[in-house]
Design goal:
alpha+beta; Nucleotide Exchange Factor Grpe, Chain A, domain 2; 3 domains
Length: 195
């Protein structure tokens, strides 16, 4: 066997199959260094763009979920915001029912009246705990922000534009009027010269 016959099967020069593979390898590695450098920043920017788009999509989804969750919490709060107030009022109702039940057994009307007055005081205490207070009226100067005048009457005892009588108690919560007091306002002493 000669040296030519003894060719190394892995020698790319002597094996025709390997010469094609060598050509292929050379072809794949034939890109110039300049092309690799141009593609590398482009691919890097594309990857950064994809990551930023993904982050943006996730952030938008989180924002939508946050808004939805917040809206649900607000809706639940509004739906049940009066729950504690109602719980505070239930004993008042219980006491009124007891008063009605005891009215048949009461020895006198005064005892029944005393019981109802206690329930009213309990109710006012609950309102006070919620920062609700009565608007002062009788003898006070008339204030259209707090009082609703339903009538005017002359009075020798009460000066003009002062409240002569309270018809319905007004209430305010903190600085906001819940219901103005309905009142009768004095016009001052009656002028007898008209007669």
């Amino acid at each position: 066997m000669t040296d030519q016959d003894r060719t190394d099967p892995f020698d790319s020069d002597s094996n025709p199959e390997n010469s094609e593979a060598a050509d292929t390898v050379k072809f794949e590695g034939a890109e110039s260094q300049e092309e690799i450098e141009v593609l590398s920043p482009l691919e890097k920017l594309q990857k950064e763009k994809d990551e930023l788009e993904d982050r943006l999509t996730r952030t938008q989804a989180e924002l939508v979920n946050y808004r939805r969750r917040t809206q649900n919490e607000i809706a639940q709060f509004r739906k049940y915001e009066g729950l504690n107030f109602v719980r505070d009022l239930l004993p008042v109702i219980d006491n009124l029912q007891r008063a009605v039940g005891a009215s048949g057994q009461a020895a006198s009307v005064d005892d029944l009246k005393k019981g109802v007055e206690m329930v009213i005081q309990q109710f006012l205490d609950i309102l006070a705990s919620k920062e609700v207070k009565q608007i002062p009226a009788n003898g006070e100067p008339f204030d259209p922000n707090l009082h609703e005048a339903v009538q005017q009457v002359p009075s020798n005892d009460i000066p003009a534009m002062h409240i002569a009588q309270e018809l319905e108690t007004g209430y305010q919560m903190n600085d906001r009027v819940v219901r103005p007091a309905k009142v009768i306002v004095s016009t001052g002493p009656q002028d007898n010269s008209e007669e």
